[in-house]
Amino acid sequence: MRKFKIAMAFTGIIIGAGFASGQEMLQYFTSFGIWGIVGTIVSIFIFGFFGFVIVDMGHFFKAYSHRDVLNHIVSPITNRVIDIFLLLTLFGIGVVMVAGAGSNLNQQFGWPIWLGNLICVALVFLVGMMNTEKVVGAIGAIAPFLIILVIVISFRSLSTADWDFAAMNADALELTSPLPNWWVSVLNYASVNLTTGVATAFLLGGVEKDKKVARHGGLIGGIVVGCLIVLINLTLFATSAQVATFDLPMLQMARLIQPWVGLIMSILIFFEIWNTAMSVLYSFSTSFITPNKKNFRYVLLAASIAAFALSFGGFTNVIGFVYPAVGYGGSIIYDVGEKSLASFFVSENRKQVSSPVE
Asked: Longest C-alpha distance within the chain, in Å?
């Protein structure tokens, strides 16, 4: 049961505004046609591996923040560079999520975008006042419901599609992408999402007492994320001509099936958007002060207000700018730190690093 909880929390971190809505899939995978499908299959292995590794590291160091891990495995200079980058990433993705919340409720209900943005940050602040284990539980609570609905919508859409691969590929290749080719897109996408989720994934491992539960939960969560990427992209590949012009194509796909399906999908997407906003803004705040301190609420409140203020740049435009930038930056950061990470997982070197609980 605890493995499932960690797996769903890890999935909930990744499934945010762009993922659950399908906008990320359009830009990163669908726009490359058949090669984009190949890229999504590669993603299963990438997310599964790093889900295992990151959550395990969080468990080993009993981490509440990415700093609890970085302080032990990289040099002070590298630590500082990664720290600054992760803080900027967490806040930047928080802004994207808040923008996605407003766009979601605007597309489904016609509400003003500012209202959806405000509801999102208000929920972030209110839930963030709970203890850390309850926050982790809240982050993973909605993921199973959205996964089920995505599977239903995808199979319904795929079963009724006219499977003319040449025509589908032609429609997909007419879409635009901020990335130059499919393999750069795969690496960039993995980088941006893992960079987004790494701080909270450390936290997932940090609050789990059993090493095997932490490891297996991260592995399962990563595989689930990869499989969802394949399924959503394949669905968009088959239906891009009908849904690609919308900010939230998966929501539009649900509405085409039945209006009430669109309503349920809209609500679930909103809460998954909030999930990711919750995880990144909470992790951003815990980087400055531990959650059990009284002043934590003021840091989280300030982060939420700032994210709200910067969330009016347009959801699609914000994804097209922030995500590739984070992905390229994350690739450089991982390259800088890969030797330290590799040495940590060589058993004889790992024994030389003292776990806080050993």
From this structure: 60
The set of residues, in sequence order, having a beta carbon less than 8 Å from that of 136 and lying 6+ positions away, is: 5, 9, 203, 204, 207
Residue 336 CB-density burial (10 A; 0-12 exposed, 13-18 middle, 19+ buried): middle
Q: Over its length of 358 residues, how does the chain's per-residue pLDDT go in tens digits?
A: 789 989 998 998 787 656 777 888 998 999 999 999 999 999 999 999 999 999 998 999 888 778 888 888 777 887 888 888 888 888 988 888 898 889 888 888 899 999 999 999 999 999 988 877 788 778 778 888 888 988 999 999 899 888 899 999 999 999 988 889 999 999 888 888 888 788 888 989 998 889 999 999 999 999 999 999 999 999 999 998 888 888 778 888 888 888 899 889 888 888 888 888 888 899 899 888 888 788 899 999 999 999 999 888 766 666 666 777 777 777 666 555 555 555 555 554 455 555 554 4
The whole-angstrom separation of Cα 247 and Cα 104 is 8
Answer whether 153's CB lies under 8 Å from 343's CB.
Answer: no
Delimit the domains of the chain by residue range. 2-350
The conformation of residue 111, written as its DSSP 8-state character, comes to -
Q: Is the pTM of this model over 0.70?
A: yes
* Token output for 251: 């929501």
Cβ distance 358 to 62 under 8 Å? no
Q: In this structure, are residues 67 and 315 in contact, taking their beta carbons and an 8 Å threshold?
A: no
CA nearest to 141, candidates 14, 264, 8, 21: 8
CA distance 16 to 192: 12
Which parts of 61-112 fold into alpha helices (H)? Answer: 67-73, 76-109
Q: Which CATH number fits domain 2-350: 1.20.1740.10, 1.10.3720.10, 2.60.120.280, 3.40.710.10?
A: 1.20.1740.10
Rounded to whole angstroms, what are the CA distances from 278 to 13, 113, 143, 153?
Answer: 9, 19, 14, 26
Q: Cα 20 from chain centroid? A: 9
CA 161/CA 153 separation, integer angstroms: 12
Looking from the CA of 241 toward its CB, the CA atoms found within 13 Å total 10
